[in-house]
User: Fold this.
Amino acid sequence: MEKIAVITSGGDAPGMNACIRAIVMTADQNDLEVIGFGHGYRGIVEDLNQPLRPNDMRLVSQRGGTILLSSRFPEFKQDKIAKQAATVLDQHGVGALIVIGGDGSFRGASHLARFWQGQIIGIPGTIDNDLAGTDTTIGFATAVDTAMEAIDRIRETAEAMARVFLIEVMGRHAGFIGLHAAIAGSAEAMLVPELEPQPKLADLADNIRRARKAYPDSSYIIVVSENLWPGGIDELSRALGQATGVTCHAAPLGHIQRGGRPNAQDRILSMQLGQSAVHAILDGSRTVMIGIEQGHVVQVPLHLTFQRDKPLDQRLVDLQLGLQQINFASNDARESA
Amino acid sequence: MEKIAVITSGGDAPGMNACIRAIVMTADQNDLEVIGFGHGYRGIVEDLNQPLRPNDMRLVSQRGGTILLSSRFPEFKQDKIAKQAATVLDQHGVGALIVIGGDGSFRGASHLARFWQGQIIGIPGTIDNDLAGTDTTIGFATAVDTAMEAIDRIRETAEAMARVFLIEVMGRHAGFIGLHAAIAGSAEAMLVPELEPQPKLADLADNIRRARKAYPDSSYIIVVSENLWPGGIDELSRALGQATGVTCHAAPLGHIQRGGRPNAQDRILSMQLGQSAVHAILDGSRTVMIGIEQGHVVQVPLHLTFQRDKPLDQRLVDLQLGLQQINFASNDARESA
Amino acid sequence: MEKIAVITSGGDAPGMNACIRAIVMTADQNDLEVIGFGHGYRGIVEDLNQPLRPNDMRLVSQRGGTILLSSRFPEFKQDKIAKQAATVLDQHGVGALIVIGGDGSFRGASHLARFWQGQIIGIPGTIDNDLAGTDTTIGFATAVDTAMEAIDRIRETAEAMARVFLIEVMGRHAGFIGLHAAIAGSAEAMLVPELEPQPKLADLADNIRRARKAYPDSSYIIVVSENLWPGGIDELSRALGQATGVTCHAAPLGHIQRGGRPNAQDRILSMQLGQSAVHAILDGSRTVMIGIEQGHVVQVPLHLTFQRDKPLDQRLVDLQLGLQQINFASNDARESA
Amino acid sequence: MEKIAVITSGGDAPGMNACIRAIVMTADQNDLEVIGFGHGYRGIVEDLNQPLRPNDMRLVSQRGGTILLSSRFPEFKQDKIAKQAATVLDQHGVGALIVIGGDGSFRGASHLARFWQGQIIGIPGTIDNDLAGTDTTIGFATAVDTAMEAIDRIRETAEAMARVFLIEVMGRHAGFIGLHAAIAGSAEAMLVPELEPQPKLADLADNIRRARKAYPDSSYIIVVSENLWPGGIDELSRALGQATGVTCHAAPLGHIQRGGRPNAQDRILSMQLGQSAVHAILDGSRTVMIGIEQGHVVQVPLHLTFQRDKPLDQRLVDLQLGLQQINFASNDARESA
Assistant:
């Protein structure tokens, strides 16, 4: 086996470029050649290839996005399209394909494995961290930092004006970004999909009302996961405003969470996974994801990464639920003192 | 005259704290005492005062928001409320009041001047930069940097996925943030209120379509001022998507533009204005705004700051309109070459 | 037990304030009162106390440094000084003391335990990460991010001018910051105290020479731990310059690594440890450090944290040693192709 | 005239890439072709050319450094080397050369003009801002922001530990970065070359001593320009430490000031100058620098930019000298109150 191909697929995530660098450097030391296909699976099918060499990698780790470009490519589910990809890979003499992406990308990889004999290695790259088999994914830590910095900014103006803000963060259908951003941003409340039971509107409103009464000059921030509340945070803000009599401002963070320079944690993770992926190829692994669990690099069968749900870390859920609890009795006591 | 009072009023802006520091330091060197009232005009009326001393100022310039807190207080338009404020100021022996804020705050200051004999000095503090009589306002430069950094992040993911984004920036009814952010973010198009004539939907759509055809793998970013397009960027994104057949993503930046550490430009401006305001008080000025024009500190009668519109710098408008123009002919030529 | 005291001691670290917040919030929910003593152990002895209340905590997590201030206080090793501290704590009715700091602070805590009957809980707060019994310490992740961002900046100018840079990072006598910053910064070489054997000057010089020959237009960055090379990086730069004939620029990062807003990882860690410390007090623990190992909060006898050396994660050492290895043979092959 | 060449020369500065983008976009709209030579003047002599096209420019404005690379090339002073450059330019059919750089680069440009008939246009690109004929230069505003952020970080740890810091900033032989960073960082003292008379060691020491006495728990920061104090800030720190009995910490910021993403101000300036340079070429200008004075783009004969010294803005000097003055009398009064 002499040639490795790499794609980034699905939503881009900060750290993908650092991962590509590690793949290229590690391959080079083992005398393997690396080519990249642009735009994910589509790029394989359309043969949009380029050589990836060590000297091109010196300034890429620092950058967000992906130098290989990415795309969503639902057509890849069709057998004939996947077969075309297999043909292109064979024509290039590619012996192993590394796919950096999320669950959709890994479904695609599993599909491709039916038609292609090469080794396929997945690397978890998604800001949402919603892949089983790995504690964290490329881009997640940076997305949390970005969301936190945005919350910090909003906190300053919210505090200056004593305002209530609902801040919507990404995560697709998982609450990882929401939970971590809520803790890091010292949020007064948090709405993420995994909470059981979900907080009721009446309880949220009650908490806001009591907090405003106890601390009238203070800000109040609720972190809300996307795709959770029907009508989104605009609707939730209206409902809470009506229930409390307090204007509730909606701040959706949106796509800024996807970009930006990867932080150190994401770069280190990315390079660790990239290096390990090449080692796994040399060791003969196939159709696995390279993940990280409790500091150890692990290999997980690809299909297990998207067939199971990954739970939030309950200790962190308890941390936030604990910290966000306002002791109104204590405040009353102090007030009356 | 021995005592100066300071308030921050209306929307907070990064740099207000640096301005307060300069006021306090300069007053102290001239043996003037400074007190602050919290929450803007409301704080005067409710006598929410606190002493402001040099040694408390060492860590404030770095912070966004306002340590004095702010508020919108429409009740201040009533004569009897303004008279109450005058009474409180007199009770404290305040000889001069410095108001850091925007046009609403300066209207309030003009109103107060009818009932209070002390000196009133305005300092332009608003991220929107929509005050006549000064080239720039406290917070504007930082807001532009914040918007630009957000555009940079979105650019990375937009480029990775070859997407079209509409990014909505603040500015109330003025296009200053929009114009500067569009240039700094290398936007492909810009919609700000001052453009004459306003770009038509059909022309925008046509440009997007041609750009996608010429550069199918590229991002395309339109910076749009708030309060401009009926229905906002959500509606505009839908309309453009329909007209072009290309998905157009909407990204409203919202309140993150208001917070954050002031950049150097804003801190220097803020301190210059704060120091000059105290000097103006010592020189006997009253009912003026301290502004900056072409590097020089100027004094402008307060009412002139909100009765006139401030135009955009036409040279910068021309800069952006020039840079954003794609030479499709040149592309066609290269393509056919 | 009704009252908890908190100090921050030794070098400050980003995240200490988030930790204080978590302590205060958690204590309040459990109807415990919290006081802080300023300037570490010195503040106990001099009784520089202040109440710490939930409502004061809303804007502190975001800030670097420590709101309680810190100091080095070698006098605390004297028995009579420690006894004075015990007396002050007793006078305030303090039942438990939380010390956020590094190994010197924990030695102080162990010393105090000889003279004071209250519970003493340590929380690891140091950017150097050189405490056994915990995978990481408050401030470490942020310091790595800061060092990495500095390296990124230097990389840009180094690349523009094709220069060799030696960048000195903190860490006292441990290589944690050096190792993590080298990986995150894609350094071409790394000098940290734990490497066995230490790279020789001749080998370093040889690598630089060969890299310059293979890639004459490229930057080359060596990350060097402080307190490692006799004469520091100035001396090492001179020596390498002489050995290679290439100018080697020295860039000591210095104290910027200690300040700055804590990143999300540090805030979450800090709050987790702070909350756990209060729970540990309620559970009756004494003279332990609250640490984190593989995601789990653990308690470690205080004296074990500073009597053992903590090794680097060998997997990360291997990662960097692998990635930094330039395959000159591969380059030669390409050149001759 | 159909072809423009561009080089970046001397020390790189954030914003150079945005300037290159503006040149390429503007040229393209006017049907001019642009080529870049790598590594400054050396790249012309060695004919290291590359085409620069609009579609390559979409992701460059955001980046520090220079995509064209730069170098110092003293050999260019030789007539025969300059003649070689002229020959290469003629061989490519270049009609105009744009040089982005500082005074050394403009001396080179003047030299080249003796041997080459094409139009030569200079654009001021240096973080030091030490070019006459323009109020500011590409990279200066970003360097000030970078220095300020470093001072902010050091301020936090200095405050936590009540320390005195001397922070050395860049500027070559000019105090622009020093002055602006001192104001923006709220420095307690400033040493820049233009001060007349220079502060004496005894006075600095006296101020530190008095400040420590009046505010023993506070930080004290002195911003010092490079190349000013014999022996640098290490020597000055030792001398001040000896004179005051207080440890004075030295923090040289070094090359981090040169890198980093350009801020909005620098990007806008860069694009304005780049666009104007192409317009100047179309208008037939030759051997001028495109500068900016009070918001207006101006043209200045090249040799005037490096033959005169540019003074600091005296108003900003007065601002800092005013703000940094501690009113000890006021403190004594309060103390005794």
